[in-house]
Write a structure and sequence with these properties.
348 residues, 17 strands, globular, Aminopeptidase, alpha+beta
Length: 348
């Protein structure tokens, strides 16, 4: 694994609509692997490798991460914020954040709940924590905070990249990990197909970047690339398991955004079984991916999503198995080499 690249991708700041730092890394890494790179009006990176008689395959992995925007600064300097993407407030207490200011660089803040300290709590004080209860403390007087921070500044969570046993752990594996998989599959795939690898924007707020990108690309086949829930942990009943770490990448069969094309899915399964690549079948009750946006463009596109199981999604401890990452790269590269649009069309 090229862990230096993966670390660079995950540590770059880039909430939905503010993906510029990630975009620079992607362009620098992918430009030598394709014939053309451009940026569209939504900020998507669209990298095209021209084919030789094969179908046009669109790959989509999103660059954005969940985070916040500064919304209000009170006279004491405490900052309230707008969440961008889905958070469980229980995992945010006592985190550290970076505020990316317009003119004063990056400043570090403390994310805390607006409640009494534990030493002063009584049983009647307990209540369910909400995002609105949280604030950011910069440790500065109000006038100094207001001189540095402005409404709309981007806020990201701290979460360094590290190895945790057989896993990689970092903030923003969702979905920089699959941006990495997309790049590495391009690196090894020898395909007749025209491959359009798109690093998309604003996925976390409604698949907003993938839809216009797919309209412009007009693909014959679409493959969303994303993480998915590995809820193989205490507190989750076995019958509710979506995927498990170490059992291979997942071929999606359902989520809130799409019912993938079963013919494309069957091709992925055939490749995996022939090549001895472990895989899982994913049925995700809630959540969506860029594949859902690609599928509905123009007259419709045969589409599925290839996922990498990841524990602790939407936290700073997102974790994925190294073997699952490597198998996802191999499976995707084989698919790119063999994709045949005639296999994915319904016939009378």
């Amino acid at each position: 694994m090229n862990e230096q690249l993966l670390e660079s991708l995950t540590q770059a700041p880039g909430i939905s609509g503010h993906e510029g730092a990630v975009r620079k890394i992607v362009i620098n890494e992918i430009k030598s692997l394709v014939d053309d790179v451009r940026i569209d009006a939504m900020g998507n990176v669209i990298a095209t490798r021209r084919g030789n008689g094969g179908p046009r395959i669109m790959l989509a992995a999103h660059m954005d991460e969940i985070g916040f925007l500064v919304k209000y600064i009170d006279d004491r300097g405490f900052i309230r914020f707008q969440q961008v993407g889905g958070f469980d407030p229980r995992v945010l207490v006592a985190q550290r954040v970076s505020i990316h200011t317009r003119k004063h660089g990056v400043v570090t803040g403390l994310l805390q709940p607006g409640t009494k300290p534990i030493h002063l709590l009584t049983p009647s004080d307990s209540k369910e924590l909400k995002i609105e209860d949280l604030f950011i403390d910069l440790g500065l007087p109000g006038d100094e905070v207001k001189a540095i921070v402005t409404r709309g500044d981007m806020v990201t969570l701290h979460g360094p990249y590290q190895r945790t046993g057989n896993l990689v752990t970092s903030r923003a594996l969702d979905d920089r990990l699959l941006v990495y998989v997309m790049i590495e599959a391009l690196r090894i795939a020898d395909s007749k197909a025209e491959i359009v690898a798109v690093a998309t924007t604003q996925e976390e707020v409604g698949l907003r970047g993938a839809a216009p990108a797919a309209y412009g690309v007009d693909p014959d086949v679409g493959i969303g690339l994303d993480v998915t829930l590995a809820n193989d942990i205490p507190g989750s009943p076995t019958e509710a398991t979506i995927t498990s770490l170490g059992d291979g990448p997942a071929i999606k069969h359902f989520d809130s955004s799409q019912i993938p094309n079963p013919l494309v899915n069957e091709h992925f399964r055939e490749i995996a079984e022939r090549e001895g690549i472990p895989y899982q079948l994913e049925v995700l009750p809630r959540g969506g991916t860029d594949g859902g946006a690609i599928q509905r463009i123009r007259a419709g596109v045969p589409t599925t999503t290839l996922s990498v199981p990841t524990r602790y999604l939407h936290t700073v401890n997102e974790s994925a198995a190294v073997t699952d990452i490597e198998h996802a790269i191999t499976l995707l590269a084989h698919f790119l080499q063999e994709a045949d649009v005639s296999r994915y069309r319904y016939t009378i």
